[in-house]
Amino acid sequence: KGFLKTLLSTFDTCLAQNDAEKKRLEAFGHENVHITSNLKYASKPLPTPADKVAELKTALGGRPCWQFASTHPGEEEQAARVHKALKMENPDALTIIVPRHPERGDEIKKMLEEDGLQVTQRSKGEEITSDTDIYVADTLGELGVFFEVVKLVVMGGSFVPHGGHNPIEPAQLGCGIIYGPHMFNFKTICYDFESHGACMIAKDSQDLTGMLKRLISASGEVQNLGQVAKTMTEDKATARQEVWAHIHAMVANL
Question: pTM of the prediction?
Answer without folding.
Answer: 0.92
